[in-house]
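TASK: fixed-backbone design
INPUT:
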């Protein structure tokens, strides 16, 4: 007759193993909270209008091996201080549209191009100036048009600054929201394939918010998927095809759609009695590249953007000459070496160039 001690011992060993695993996970989780890995807090959520958008009122940290920045999203979902939607009487209001460069989560809020530009404007005298920063990481010209239509114009800006970076071309070329048909801009029916249902998104968000180990494993999984799919990271050493000479047919198509988007934004801004100024952001490799690569022109994107602006009658500020001159004379870094976004010095220089251009060209119109 078999002894009952065998099954009891196995149950005991299983209980000990489960208990030890749970205890180890608790200890690991505690250590991760004491010494957080370079993984950012959840500051974005899915959004039916723009695909993804900041979580209104959310506070957290943007982390990387190079920086840790405290971030607070205001009640309107912008990485900025609070602004009344209705423009105060007598205030000259500037609205910034753009992606992660304008958003500036790699530096403290007071160091961002928007805040530094606001200081420069108010220091010159005249009416009080207010700069509303609506930069959002991942936005392209397409989502900036959608944002302006639904939220941006509600701020009644006098001036709209649209910051353009070279990856906006590829973002627009994904036809997420718009396409060209016989030269006419058409809306694309948005797709929700691959997005979590609201309950599942809420569960995933809660787990990410409360468990560092979940963030670590989730980040590792996302990176593994990127490697498996052959997708390069944002820091890929490969040169963006937008710089290739001559332009490929794909890039020319991206430029055609981007031009139509910019012209539409300009029309809608003018219809709201405001005016648009386009700002070309230089790539770090365009500024610091010492060895031009055969078959590539690192000034091509900003130069062609200027041609598009001139053809459409849109005011244009090219940051590339000023950034290149500053780097050549000082060799001071204007970008984070790995992250490749502006550091505080880069934001400061961008604000100064934009300010000087606005004043010199008389673009601060009432």
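OUTPUT:
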């Amino acid at each position: 007759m078999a002894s009952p001690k065998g099954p009891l011992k196995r149950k005991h060993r299983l209980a000990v193993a489960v208990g030890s695993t749970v205890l180890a996970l608790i200890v690991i989780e505690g250590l991760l909270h004491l010494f957080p890995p370079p993984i950012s807090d959840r500051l974005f959520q899915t959004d039916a209008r723009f695909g993804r958008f900041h979580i209104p009122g959310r506070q957290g940290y943007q982390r990387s091996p190079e920086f840790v920045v405290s971030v607070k999203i205001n009640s309107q979902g912008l990485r900025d201080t609070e602004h009344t939607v209705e423009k105060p009487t007598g205030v000259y209001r500037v609205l910034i549209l753009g992606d992660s460069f304008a958003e500036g989560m790699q530096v403290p809020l007071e160091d961002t191009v928007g805040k530094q530009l606001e200081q420069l404007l108010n220091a010159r005298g005249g009416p009080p100036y207010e700069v509303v920063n609506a930069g959002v990481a991942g936005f392209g010209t397409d989502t900036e048009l959608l944002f302006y239509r639904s939220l941006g114009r509600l701020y009644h800006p006098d001036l709209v600054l649209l910051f353009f970076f070279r990856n906006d071309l590829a973002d627009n070329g994904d036809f997420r929201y718009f396409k060209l048909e016989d030269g006419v801009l058409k809306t694309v029916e948005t797709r929700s394939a691959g997005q979590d249902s609201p309950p599942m998104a809420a569960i995933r968000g809660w787990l990410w918010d409360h468990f560092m180990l979940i963030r670590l494993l989730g980040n590792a999984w996302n990176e593994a998927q990127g490697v498996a799919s052959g997708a390069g990271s944002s820091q890929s050493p490969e040169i963006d095809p937008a710089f290739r000479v001559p332009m490929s047919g794909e890039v020319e198509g991206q430029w055609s759609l981007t031009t139509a988007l910019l012209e539409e934004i300009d029309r809608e801004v003018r219809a709201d009695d405001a005016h648009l100024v386009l700002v070309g952001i230089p790539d770090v490799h365009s500024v610091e590249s010492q060895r031009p690569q055969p078959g590539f022109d690192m000034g091509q994107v900003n130069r062609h953007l200027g041609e598009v602006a001139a053809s459409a009658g849109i005011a244009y500020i090219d940051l590339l000459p000023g950034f290149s001159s500053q780097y050549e004379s000082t060799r001071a870094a204007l970008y984070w070496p790995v992250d490749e976004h502006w550091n505080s010095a880069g934001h400061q220089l961008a604000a100064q160039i934009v300010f000087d251009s606005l004043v010199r060209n008389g673009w601060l119109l009432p």
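COMMENT: The first strand starts at residue 44 and ends at 47.
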